[in-house]
Every structure is written in structure tokens, then in C-alpha cells.
Design a protein that fits this description.
The protein is an alpha+beta fold. The strands form 2 sheets. A 5-stranded antiparallel sheet has the order 4-5-6-7-8. It has a 3-stranded antiparallel sheet with strand order 1-2-3, with helices on one face. The two termini are 41 Å apart. The relative contact order is 0.13.
């Protein structure tokens, strides 16, 4: 119990406005203001055909952000793809949003991702950067009994080297201090 009290004192006093006052060992006090909580939206931005299947294009982005960046997904409501869509969703969407922290940017993003992947079967997933560049992360080429021939399982003709991949991923690196990319050597 004493360790819990010591940890609470070290973490600082939480004020009603969300700021935290931390007392340093030399007696000084520091005021920490948490970053603003970001909310996300999923909006339809068009239609597209991928692998011979029609789908709606949905964009997941921060509310109030006028730039056309964020995750972009083409989702199909074709019943013939429902089973594969369920399997893809199991791997892409968070399993239990309620198990996440009670509030905050991460929870809001997980809820929006669950909403996005609940729109149907994922045909294409891309990330759009601030400068308009697009990095395609996933594309369903074809689906059917003959879909899994040997050629499908081969590597593409051009494979990204480590430097190119890291440069591409810089677009995706979050800026927040509590980023999971913190400490990664570039």
C-alpha cells in the first residue's frame, strides 16, 4: 500500500483541468499539460473497383482536419466476400475496444478503426500523407477457388530495402511523446 502511495505522489497531483503538478526531489514543481485528446471520423469519399469487385472508399481521419490524409479503405458489401471479410476484420480491427484505456486518443482511434473495418470486406487499405502521397498497405487481388496459386505467394518483383521502408514509415510515425515508435533508431 505504501508503494502505491509513493507512486501516486511521484506521478503528481492531478488537477480538475487535466494538468498534473509534479514535485521534484529538489523541491521545485513542474506543471505537465497532457496533449489534447483527438477524435476520429470515418467518412465515405467515393467508390472504387478493386480486383473486379466494387466497393465504397472510406477515410479515417482526425475530426476537424481539412487535409485529405489518414487511412483510406475500400470496403465491399458483396455477400460472396463476407466470410473472408470476417477473417480480415479479425486481424485488422481491435478485438475489444472496451478493454482499452477508458478515454483518450488511442481509444478513439481504436473505436474508429473498428467502425471502419465493420463497413464490409476490406479490398484495399492505404495511408495518405500530408503531402498527398499514398502508401498502399493491402490489396485483395482476386478471390475464388483458384486465387491461391503459386504466383500469388511469390514476392513482388521490387522489394523495398530497409532504408526505403524506413523512409516510407516516417509518414506513419506519430508525433506524440508516448508513441510506440519512441526509442526506435532511425
Amino acid at each position: 500500500m505504501e508503494q502505491a502511495d509513493a507512486a501516486a505522489k511521484a506521478a503528481g497531483e492531478l488537477r480538475p483541468d487535466g494538468t498534473r503538478v509534479v514535485r521534484l526531489s529538489d523541491g521545485r514543481e513542474m506543471l505537465f499539460t497532457p496533449p489534447p485528446v483527438v477524435t476520429f471520423q470515418v467518412i465515405q469519399v467515393g467508390t472504387e473497383e478493386v480486383g473486379g469487385r466494387a466497393g465504397k472508399v472510406w477515410r479515417l481521419s482526425a475530426v476537424g482536419d481539412p487535409r485529405p490524409n489518414g487511412l483510406e479503405a475500400v470496403m465491399s458489401s458483396d455477400p460472396a466476400l463476407a466470410q473472408v471479410g470476417r477473417l480480415i476484420r479479425m486481424h485488422m480491427a481491435p478485438a475489444d475496444v472496451a478493454a482499452l484505456e477508458p478515454e483518450g486518443t488511442r481509444r478513439n482511434l481504436a473505436k474508429a478503426a473498428a467502425e471502419l473495418f465493420g463497413k464490409g470486406t476490406l479490398l484495399r487499405l492505404s495511408v495518405r500523407g500530408e503531402a498527398g502521397q499514398t502508401l498502399e498497405l493491402y490489396r485483395l487481388q482476386r478471390f475464388g477457388p483458384a486465387s491461391f496459386r503459386g504466383a500469388v505467394l511469390q514476392l513482388p518483383a521490387t522489394v523495398r530495402d530497409r532504408k526505403t521502408l524506413r523512409d516510407d514509415l516516417k509518414v506513419l510515425t506519430p508525433v506524440e511523446d508516448d508513441s510506440p515508435m519512441r526509442g526506435v533508431q532511425r
